[in-house]
Amino acid sequence: MDVQVGDILKLKKSHPCGEVLFDVLRVGMDFKIRCRKCGREVMVPRAKIERNIKEIIRQL
Description:
By secondary structure, this protein is mostly beta strands. It is 12% helix and 43% strand.
């Protein structure tokens, strides 16, 4: 899966605040993502996040 820094991910499961959109801050073995509603940053293993991606929104 080709995810780059700056993309927006729409995930299958929502954050506890209710948001499903996350900004990608870092890509590698772990992804660092930020919730677009509350601003919380989370590190998630690549395997787990690739299973939960519903849509990738590219930013120009």
